[in-house]
């Protein structure tokens, strides 16, 4: 049994990580209205300087029901240039610089998509429908300009602290869904890890390319 322990522990960590990233539909409206937590539970993050420009997000706590440390959260950070016009069916290119300080406090649009049709009546279909219902609030704002990511980092007073990075790429056949519904706050705080979720091109716009 001892020789199988690392494999079991690895699978257990993966299961926990995915479960902590499960989407919660009600948070879509909460995020968009900038009411993630009460006023005493959030504040603007420090200013960070990237190659493209200055960036600020929010410092939030994962929730009063959890005894966890705060997390710096940056939503809607561009990782590539808008894939429109002459770039529509081309591989992504670097994001252009921006002027001033970019406020990364709201989700960016998701890629245009069509949700699958599900036949009703059997337990697997009911589970799939429930999953879709949880996703739908996050998928209302669609645009071809959708190459953005969300970053969740454990908050530390010293900015020199480094963390391992977990990049979560959503599934669903490269046809639908988004990285926005997957909340990385709890995993980032509990696991002491940087969590990144991404949006990428789907369907005909994204075959073989992000």
Automatic annotation (TrEMBL):
<feature type="domain" description="Carboxylesterase type B">
    <location>
        <begin position="49"/>
        <end position="206"/>
    </location>
</feature>
<keyword id="KW-0325">Glycoprotein</keyword>
<comment type="similarity">
    <text>Belongs to the type-B carboxylesterase/lipase family.</text>
</comment>
<dbReference type="InterPro" id="IPR051093">
    <property type="entry name" value="Neuroligin/BSAL"/>
</dbReference>
<dbReference type="InterPro" id="IPR002018">
    <property type="entry name" value="CarbesteraseB"/>
</dbReference>
<dbReference type="InterPro" id="IPR019819">
    <property type="entry name" value="Carboxylesterase_B_CS"/>
</dbReference>
<keyword id="KW-0732">Signal</keyword>
<protein>
    <recommendedName>
        <fullName>Carboxylesterase type B domain-containing protein</fullName>
    </recommendedName>
</protein>
<dbReference type="Pfam" id="PF00135">
    <property type="entry name" value="COesterase"/>
</dbReference>
<feature type="signal peptide">
    <location>
        <begin position="1"/>
        <end position="27"/>
    </location>
</feature>
<dbReference type="InterPro" id="IPR029058">
    <property type="entry name" value="AB_hydrolase_fold"/>
</dbReference>
């Amino acid at each position: 049994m001892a020789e199988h322990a690392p494999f079991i522990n690895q699978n257990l960590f993966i299961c926990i990580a995915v479960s902590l990233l499960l989407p919660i539909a009600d948070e879509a409206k909460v995020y968009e209205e900038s009411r993630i937590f009460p006023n005493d539970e959030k504040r603007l993050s420090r200013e960070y300087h990237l190659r493209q420009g200055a960036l600020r997000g929010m410092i939030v706590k994962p929730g009063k029901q959890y005894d966890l440390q705060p997390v710096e959260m940056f939503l809607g950070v561009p990782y590539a240039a808008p894939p429109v016009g002459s770039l529509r069916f081309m591989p992504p290119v670097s994001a252009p610089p921006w002027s001033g300080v970019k406020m990364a406090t709201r989700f960016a649009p998701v890629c245009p998509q069509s949700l699958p049709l599900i036949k009703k009546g059997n337990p697997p279909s009911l589970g799939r429908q429930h999953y879709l219902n949880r996703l739908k609030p996050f998928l209302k704002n669609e645009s071809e300009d959708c190459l953005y990511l969300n970053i969740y980092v454990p908050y530390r007073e010293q900015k020199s602290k480094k963390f391992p990075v977990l990049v979560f790429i959503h599934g669903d056949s490269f046809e639908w869904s988004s990285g926005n519904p997957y909340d990385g706050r709890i995993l980032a705080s509990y696991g002491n890890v940087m969590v990144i979720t991404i949006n990428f091109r789907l369907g005909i716009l994204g075959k073989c390319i992000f």
